[in-house]
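Give me the fold.
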Amino acid sequence: MADKNVKLSVRTKIIMSLSVALFVFGFLAAAISYKMFMDAAIELNKRVGTGAAQIIADMIDGDKVEEFLEKGRAAEGYEETEKKLYRMKERLPDITFVYVYKILPDGCHVVFDLDTPEVKAMEVGQVEELEAEFSEALPRLLHGGQIEPTISDGVYGWLLSVYVPVFDSNGVCQCYAGVDISMNELRRQAQEYVLKLTIIFLLILIAILFVCFRLAEYGLIIPINEMARFAGMFAQDNEDEMENNLENIRRLNIHTGDEVENLYRAFVKMTDDSVRHVRDVKNKNEAISQMQNALIVTLADLVESRDENTGQHIKKTAAYVQIILDELKREGVYKEQLTDAFIENVVSSAPLHDIGKIAVPDSILNKPGKLTKEEFDLMKTHTTAGGRIIGSIIASVPDSHYLDEAKNLATYHHERWDGKGYPTGLAGENIPLSARIMAVADVFDALISKRSYKEGFSYEKAFSIIEEESGTHFDPKLVDAFFRAKDEVLRVADGFKNL
């Protein structure tokens, strides 16, 4: 079974690659064929049009053009010439329009224009405005210059227009004989040609894709998918299942005689080696994890059981810390520091932030009234004591670096953003981020909690104090995050209040 997380399977890539390649090839072939077909057909029509225009030019007496324009149909020979033109047009069904124009600076003066079923002819002498191509070439046309055949797509469809000059007996160009050949039928034929070519190409494409697909399916896709399937099954916690999966991988016994087989052999060896190592790593990780959790819970319980004032302070502050961390991550604040490992270590270590209180005498820890200066100085030593306790654990327990943040929390959670905190007077971002976060959570819980020596403040008052001390006591970015998550903070506070 293919991995559902794979965005594009090998099968899809092969089909897409072949399809794109064949499509590009087919498109280019069709485009070239179409162009060759159209070029040949247009060239043929140009020759037909030029021949027809030349026949018309030969029928026109250049010496009488001025008289035709002046007298119109009353001019001698005009109607006879017009009849010849109609007879000629009837013999040339490919010709759509036949006309004779005298080109002057003010426009095209109609000498002859033949009626068609669709369009009524213009009257003799009527002047039609010069088109752009005529205007640009007017000096040359007034002297009988050649006009290249033109193709236009307008009101009357796709037309090929061909013009041939008519000269008088003195060799002076008097007018131009013109014919328009409809190219609509040519366009239809070209479209039919492309359609037939497309159908043939699609049939060839389907046949090629089918053959390539079958070859790739059995020589590449199925072997790779089978290896991927068993590799996915191998990533299990059950040791017996891992052994069974290894045997299943061996039973695949892939023989393709190419790089896929080499990959399979290497895969079997890697899997065999992994089975031996995974068991050891798993056992070691379990032992470390159990030790870590037991240590944190035990130490946190020791502190909370001695301090009659804190209640569930440890659990509440840990919850607030989690809320602030989640909000910072959502907003992308301090994103370089907020790795998954950092967040996990801070949340897990949060209950240890007051571990140093274990070194504070009960008489001070549980005093119902306000502490004296000497007593408060002794109380403040719980920060350095906590740092020493956790530091000694880190030094004596292998692979306990996950407690680094616990040490930061215990030592620096009473430091202030303005540098007026304790125990070392660190300021700003010199204070570890985890300790700055705990400072907000710790003070907020202290404000709203009832103690033997005070009543708890209202939520509004507590938030107001936190806001007032943003930039002095607390990191402003953390206060902003705390306020953005205010609803969630209140849910947690209410939850513990109702316990």
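Strands lie at 95-104, 107-113, 127-128, 150-154, 157-167, 173-182.
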